[in-house]
Automatic annotation (TrEMBL):
<comment type="subunit">
    <text>NDH-1 is composed of 14 different subunits. Subunits NuoB, C, D, E, F, and G constitute the peripheral sector of the complex.</text>
</comment>
<feature type="domain" description="NADH-quinone oxidoreductase subunit D">
    <location>
        <begin position="136"/>
        <end position="309"/>
    </location>
</feature>
<dbReference type="GO" id="GO:0050136">
    <property type="term" value="F:NADH dehydrogenase (quinone) (non-electrogenic) activity"/>
</dbReference>
<keyword id="KW-1003">Cell membrane</keyword>
<dbReference type="InterPro" id="IPR014029">
    <property type="entry name" value="NADH_UbQ_OxRdtase_49kDa_CS"/>
</dbReference>
<dbReference type="InterPro" id="IPR001135">
    <property type="entry name" value="NADH_Q_OxRdtase_suD"/>
</dbReference>
<dbReference type="InterPro" id="IPR029014">
    <property type="entry name" value="NiFe-Hase_large"/>
</dbReference>
<dbReference type="GO" id="GO:0005886">
    <property type="term" value="C:plasma membrane"/>
</dbReference>
<keyword id="KW-1278">Translocase</keyword>
<dbReference type="GO" id="GO:0051287">
    <property type="term" value="F:NAD binding"/>
</dbReference>
<keyword id="KW-0520">NAD</keyword>
<comment type="similarity">
    <text>Belongs to the complex I 49 kDa subunit family.</text>
</comment>
<comment type="function">
    <text>NDH-1 shuttles electrons from NADH, via FMN and iron-sulfur (Fe-S) centers, to quinones in the respiratory chain. The immediate electron acceptor for the enzyme in this species is believed to be a menaquinone. Couples the redox reaction to proton translocation (for every two electrons transferred, four hydrogen ions are translocated across the cytoplasmic membrane), and thus conserves the redox energy in a proton gradient.</text>
</comment>
<keyword id="KW-0874">Quinone</keyword>
<feature type="domain" description="NADH-quinone oxidoreductase subunit D">
    <location>
        <begin position="311"/>
        <end position="385"/>
    </location>
</feature>
<keyword id="KW-0813">Transport</keyword>
<protein>
    <recommendedName>
        <fullName>NADH-quinone oxidoreductase subunit D</fullName>
        <ecNumber>7.1.1.-</ecNumber>
    </recommendedName>
</protein>
């Protein structure tokens, strides 16, 4: 019995396509998004194998410019890196300079600063409470978020003249006293916003599609939070219970411990980060009310100190950090006794937070990448500075 000879033929498809990784660039996008961020992803099929955030497209060299501006002018530069948290950005600079000078700020200014910092926190959070669902395909919440923002923008604009860059802090206090009847209008705005905040519970947290896209997605471990220096709502959503307003109080936060609630979650996923942000917004409104109550009890008085025509910080160095809406914001000020800083180093929240993406994205699906990226709540100017 003879065997029939057989012939084997190998058919190749596209040059070993299955073993080739695909490199995908996400961004850089238009400046009117959260900023110009580029993500360089290496894909293995539908999964992300490697992720590298590429930053620097919006770098303006603010830290170098600080060295050529006097202590009044640097407030304007510091104002702009996280354009959603302008008041809080100014605050860190003036606190650092006041600490160098050993300057006491009038009590009315301390309480007013605390009030405006919390209103600024609500404005920041509302933007993300509206834009995050938008990134996942839900358009309605952003309309509500902007309406609530507008209520608070009116009172912020009335007191400072600015809608985004308030320029209301000064070394020694605030630019000027309140307009007549402002506290009443601020209280009304806070009450109006609070009365409609449940929209986000109903529209977003109650939405099964939103929960399906975010629950269990993009888990950030407490170890990664500590390793990368992640802070703010993102760090607290992973169970890292740290908030400078409670742990190292500044301004009037030491007297607000009964009202202040540090919101934490244990899950560390996209949903936990959104829940932290939402609950923190509720608490910021309560803190604003508590500040308004205290201001009503204070007698009329100055809101700033008289300064010399040329302000010089004494020789030395100091570090002032604040709990900004997106996390820890720190200024390391070195002075040689001149009217300009010798060095002013900025530690911004988003810079550290976004680094965690290198650990967070690998292993996840491309479809979940936007959900994870949006839940990191960053402003690119705050990364690039």
């Amino acid at each position: 019995m003879s065997m029939t000879p057989t012939t084997e033929t190998m058919v190749g498809i596209g040059g070993a396509a299955e073993s080739t990784d695909m490199v995908l660039n996400i961004g850089p996008q238009h400046p009117s998004t959260h900023g110009v961020l580029r993500l360089k992803l290496v894909l293995d099929g539908e999964r992300i194998a490697h992720a590298e955030p590429v930053i620097g497209y919006m770098h303006r060299g603010a830290e170098k410019l600080f060295e050529a501006r006097d202590y009044r002018q640097i407030i304007m530069l510091a104002n702009r890196h996280d354009w959603l948290s302008a008041f809080s950005n100014e605050l860190g600079v003036v606190l650092a300079v006041e600490r160098m000078l050993g300057m006491e700020v009038p009590e009315r200014a301390v309480w007013l600063r605390t009030l405006l910092a919390e209103l600024n926190r609500v404005l920041n959070h509302l933007m993300f409470l509206g834009s995050y669902p938008l990134e996942l395909g839900g358009i309605t919440p952003i309309f509500y978020a902007f309406r609530e923002r507008e209520e608070l923008q009116h009172v912020m604009e009335e007191i400072s003249g600015g809608r985004m860059h308030y320029m209301f802090n000064r070394v020694g206090g605030l630019k000027e006293d309140l307009p007549a009847g402002w506290t009443t209008r601020a209280r009304t705005a806070v009450a109006d916003v609070r009365s409609r905040m449940d929209r986000f519970d109903d529209l977003v947290l109650g939405n099964e599609i939103f929960r399906g896209r975010t629950r269990g997605v993009g888990r950030l471990t407490p170890q990664a939070v500590h390793a990368y220096g992640v802070s703010g709502p993102i760090g607290r959503a992973s169970g890292v219970d740290f908030d400078l307003r409670r742990d190292e109080p500044y301004l009037a936060y030491g007297d607000l411990q009964d009202t202040l609630k540090v919101v934490t979650r244990q899950e560390g996923d996209c949903l936990a980060r959104f829940e932290c942000l939402l609950e923190q917004t509720h608490n910021a409104l309560d803190l604003a009310d508590a500040c308004l109550d205290r201001l009503a009890e204070l007698p009329p008085g100055p809101v700033n100190q008289r300064l010399p025509k040329v302000l010089k910080a004494p020789e030395g160095h100091t570090y002032a950090w604040t709990e900004n809406p997106l996390g820890i914001n720190g200024y390391y000020l070195v002075s040689k006794g001149e009217k300009t800083p010798y060095r002013l180093k900025l530690r911004s929240a988003s810079y550290n937070n976004i680094q965690a993406l290198t650990e967070l994205l690998p292993g996840t699906l491309v479809a979940d990448m936007v959900a994870i990226l949006g839940s990191m709540f960053f402003v690119v100017g705050d990364i690039d500075k």
